[in-house]
Records
---
Amino acid sequence: MWFFKTPEIVFGEDALSYLEQLEGRRAFVITDPEVRRLGLVKPVEDRLRRAGLDVHVFDAVQPNPSIRMVRIGADVVRAFNPDWIVAVGGGSVIDAAKAIWVLFERPDLDPLAISPMEPLGIRRRARLIAIPTTSGTGSEVTWAIVLTDPEARRKLGVGSRENMPDIAIVDPAMVMGLPPRLTADTGMDALSHAVEGYVSTWRNPFSDAMCLHAARLVFAYLPRAYRNGAGDPEARTQMHLAATMAGIGFGNAMVGLAHSLGHALGARFDVPHGRAVGLFLPYVIEFNARAASDRYADLARAIGLPGPDGPEAAWRLSRAVLELLEALEQPQTIAACGIPRDDFEADLPTLVEYALEDPSTLTNPRAPTTEEVEHLFLYAYEGRMVDF
Amino acid sequence: MGILFPSDAWIKALMEEINRSPGYAEAARNWEGDFYFVVEPDGPLTKPVVFYMDLWHGRCREASQVDDESAKTPAYRMSAPYSVWKQVIQGKLDPIQALVTGRIRLRGNMVNIMRNVRAARELVLCCVRVPTDFIG
């Protein structure tokens, strides 16, 4: 038995106008100061008001939302008592909104106890709409919540199927002006979702379809979106859809070791999430080459890389990812992220511990040992091809 | 010839397997918490069977079949029908997936559980290594 779960997805040009059809009394918009400064919240507010809703904007979400921040958000939302919560932003904003929503409905709950193993009983007071302003996170269509413990410099994954947004509004207008670096970082996140979701031990035919097509779209359109930005609306639109598809795919199949390593590195050295997971993706493909060769062969064929099956297909795919990173001017090694060797080595035991304990490690097609995780970090620091 | 599941001999064999496992010792080195594992009647099993396990920092300090579930108040209670446990022990069912889909039900402090999923997997790998005969 398994599930395939998605929100209602409203997509395409002017998808935002769907907000005018909402029925309710009060909408609580959750965002961050930068998204608001860029003018992306105003059209959301306007449409909600046109639907006759009172609107309150909470723009205090910071990157890598902390447990403390979501508790503050929950206090504010409780005072406003909305029937809609509307998240406008990237992964941090949408993840924070999911946690704030759960705490609004379940003030008794420790956010770290949000799990798929216990019923939450939410949606008694409000429902959640997610409007992504980046093309990568997929958080608009998943139930995953990543919170950060700033004291331990650690990312913690929680979530329940119940806290998946009710509606995802995937409007390309919200990402037309995305800066090139953010386009590259978030685009690599989308690719990592597609590739890791496709080889995950929890994969299924429904997630396969989403991951495979998302990978195709990312290879075809991410370099164009990065180079041309708003001058290439087709690339922007296709990347926005690819990110959501990859989100649906991995949201129903989980991810793998590139995410575990990326979460650890991101939390310890403040590397943006998409940059960190994208960096590790080729190394993890090589590490998994024998365990998932047929799956990587499917992916290689899907993106137009002909050649023999078996582990060679994985190595072809790994090279294609490295070439994509180069085209996007993204770091291909940990050293290239500007992390000094001494700092990296001093932190290596913690990085290894966090990666091993990350739930994403459980669904990687090859279960790594402690030594193998350490080697993966070291190889990724130096940019060596994985040979173990 | 394996050990019959569910039985007191089986849970004691699992305790030995856990205490031999470096993988479990490492993954569960921070774990503190005892469990009831409840095997619910299903198929050839006509009465519930309850196992108690005291898991502490990568070791199993005690394991036994209990006749009276009210005798102890462990931190966690995990329950599933016999056929589901059989699939888990045979390595045919991912226990985390079974928890997520509700085929195995878990009660207790979820904060600790969410931080120790790797320990749960190592525990199941120990189960798989116990030579087991099933009642049907």
---
Amino acid sequence: MNGLRIGLLLLALMGCLLLGLLAGSVSLPLTDVWNGLWHGGGAGGAIVRDLRAPRVVLAFLVGGSLGVCGAALQAMIRNPLAEPYLLGLSSGAGLGAVIAIASRAAGPWAVPLAAFLGALAAVALVYRLSLVSGRRLDPHVLLLSGVVVGAFAGALMSAVMVLSDAPGVRNAFLWLLGGFGAASWRALAVFSAYAVLPLGLLFYHARSLDLIALGDEAAHHLGAEVDRIRRVIYLSTALLTAASVATCGIVGFVGLVVPHAVRTTFRPLHRTLLPLVFVAGGCFLVLADVVSRTAVRPLELPVGVVTALVGVPLFALLLRRTLA
Amino acid sequence: MGGLIFTLRLQSRRLALWAWFLLATAAIGCGKAAPRSPEQLRQVDDAGDTVALVAPARRVVSLIPAATELLFGIGAGSSVVGRTQYCDYPPAALDVPNLGDGIKPSLEAVLAQRPDLVLLYNSGQNAAVAGRLREMGIPHARINTDALSDVPRLSRMLGLLTGHLRGADSLAAVFDTALAQATVKPASRRPKVLLLVWEQPPMTVGRGSFLSELIERAGGENVFSDVTASSGVVSIEAVAARDPDMIFTTSEGPAAFASRPEWQVVPAVKRRRFLGVSGSEFERPSPRSPAAIRELANRLREAGP
């Protein structure tokens, strides 16, 4: 890593954030955006200050968090297919959201809160199932438990959707497809307060991830407490992902592919990989959100759809070029 | 043995009686006041298929709430032998067996009612069911019930198929008059209305949708009339930019989303300008639509500019 690369990365970061502020379903000239941002007045003051700014920052934080979760899980489970939603989280969150809608739970925060609780319940179940012989978290059992708990929660979710006669229960999937339409400074504050601890823990254990990636025995000989680190990493990624699902639904693809894209381009150690993935994931999601807001104005595309539609071809290209 | 012969003879007598009756009616038919010939019981449904009946339908499974309402409206209510879980009007419809939500219905449940006509909503999801019914030779029609103009049109179609043409004609005539009377003449400045049909994410309906028609006829203006899709997710930013005067919701009282911080950018939310309605007359085109329009017009007038 040299100064030039870091400089380029920061430049890309600033560019993404600026683009996020400029783009939207309403066209605002640069001067209006600038004035609105700093003075709150003008034609689009409220739009820029209360809608776009928190939305861009939230998309960046969520994208970064999902990317870091993916990178950490891939190293911890030693499986390139590992991603934040693999561990039953997304179906758990979906089940929570659908139950909230089907039971006509009132209140402005009912659906996100229920999704968060559903995700946590799935995490707790997967965690309990994967603890073998006392306190050891087996990566293979973890993967399998995640898949079966996810399948079970998914089946329950479908059953509730079919049986419920609540109006709009079929719209639950729209919420789950993901989007930052409900971003606000308060949502940003809640997510940030929530994300600080798990993100800090993941960054702190970056060196241990390099060791674990070598294999349990090697890591153990090099002084890493493999079992404890594995538990910490699993719970941190789970909490972080649950918080992001509650904030913006299920945004797939970021956690799976951004870490791989960064790895194939830079091949760094986890100490530098995690910050790089954080920035790259954040920029990627901000850009995807820009597309979701502007592609079919005044309608919005679910951002999860955009991340896959834009990301998959990009990643395929990257993969082919590295292989060649 | 004797009993058996007696029964057989009785049956043959009954058969003879039937044959006589049929011939007689046919003769009367040839003579005067012709009953409908099979050609007249032929209709092209909204999927482009021809529905042919040999006699007016007497056992109708109606898997569309709007069609159920119309059947009762034209006097064919006693012929309805199956409905969806959403068919809640008129109250008498609730006595009809409930066959589920009407989308991709269970064929067994439909067949158990021994229908001579099945009404399906014209959507891609029902195409397979229509195919199976065709294979089994059960008459069925796929119909659209998305616009106010469907009410008189379908009323006549169902009137023909069930032999209640007179009831259908009068329903259509009354509907057209009532609709014309209920429609508010567009004022110079119409209140701008956001039709919010779902809150998370915010979903609205565009031009040509039934709710949009209702609000326009009630003197309002749909702020998303440029959206041509029947419904779509919109951003709060777009809502704020279009600055609606009123927000139409299908929940009574101030909706839960109104207290969320991101919505405070919309002045109508901040000022709690909600037009909440409930009731199935706001869910589908029906003979009750003119009354629904009048209610909306009154509420818009009361709310003022």
